[in-house]
Amino acid sequence: MAAQGATPPPHPPVENSAFAEYESRKGVKHLVDTRTDHLKTIPRQYVLPAALRPLTAVSPIPLPTVDLSGLQGPPAWRELTVRHIALACQEWGFFRIVNHGIKESLTEEMMRTVDAFFSLPWEEKAKYTSDDVMSTVRYGTSMNTPKPHILQWRDYLRHYGHPFYTSFHLWPDRPQNYREVAKEYLEEIWKVVLDLAGAISEGLGLERNYIKESLGEGTQILAANYYPACPQPELTLGLSPHSDHGGLTLLVDNGVTGLQVKHDNNWVPVPHLPGSFLVNIGDYLEILSNGRYKSVEHRAVVNKERTRISIAAGHGPQLSAAIGPAETLVEQDGGPKYKTMTYSDFMREQQSSAIRGKTALEAVLKRVAS
Ligand SMILES: O=C(O)CCC(=O)C(=O)O
Ligand SMILES: [Fe+2]
């Protein structure tokens, strides 16, 4: 019992008595939709300790914006674009691309289709739940791991993309056009990723095809995130700080801001820019570049008014590939900074952790040091 006269708690008590473990597995959209009394406070399972709450963002600082059409231009223009990308990778690890060739109408259709998927009855989406973090198609809530953790205000759909023969037949078949739209979208994204891979290889002083060859058949993973409006956004997060395990992630949202990027130890909010994609460096490229480029921590905050949807497409090599630093860079640096391991082992480790940040990558670094 609280002592009389004690300081009141910093936020109103959370009305969560009926919110059982089983209910939380149904996710935040289900929680918000089924509360006819209008949820005013969030269940305590979502309340972060004070130190981890999203209070510390600084004002937006413009991210580098790269005009990708330069990669198709005359050699001097291409060279400038390659340098622009290299600088953005070095300084930020996060940048915007414009004139990337993906039709805005396709991105909008993909966004509507994803929205329609999340709007399906919970029982339909539940067909895709799985405790296996490597599952080909997976619908869930909070973080990817089934390990106990403070819950996050996020539902997600995650599945493999290119090469499509491994998973296409297992993707959601509702809404009816999901497979068709998602395939077209992911195919277009894959082309842009190959263009970027060529430019990034050159920027690192490697052959233009270096990253493309290292990707091989590749592993493309789509993560669609659904963050409903939240009555107490200051107490929780949509997605906790993490880096992406792949090399390059292409990200779009539905125009509702919420992404924050860690830059110079500050959380910087990233505003929406219509028609652009955000690109970020993930762990595989940090490893391949022997640490010249760093994967960047980012997180998603939620808000009181509007549902936010984001679609991230991550790209790494095929699962069986050994990931390690490029030989040429290792020679220049006098040794590898990361141990080589298979991409699937790395991904499993990263996706299983309930404390994210860059823990999986740090584990790889430690193995080299010891
Ligand atoms: O919602 C966002 O903006 C971030 C999503 C994200 O980081 C991810 O899915 O890996
Ligand atoms: Fe991410």
TrEMBL record:
GO terms for molecular function: metal ion binding; oxidoreductase activity. The keyword Cytoplasm applies. The keyword Nucleus applies. One of its GO terms (cellular component) is nucleus. PANTHER family: OXOGLUTARATE/IRON-DEPENDENT DIOXYGENASE. This is Fe2OG dioxygenase domain-containing protein. Keywords: Cytoplasm, Iron, Metal-binding, Nucleus, Oxidoreductase. It is found in: Cytoplasm; Nucleus. Residues 217-317 form the Fe2OG dioxygenase domain. Pfam families: 2OG-FeII_Oxy (PF03171), DIOX_N (PF14226). InterPro entries: DIOX_N, IPNS-like_FE2OG_OXY, IPNS-like_sf, Oxoglu/Fe-dep_dioxygenase_dom, Plant_2OG-oxidoreductases. Belongs to the iron/ascorbate-dependent oxidoreductase family.
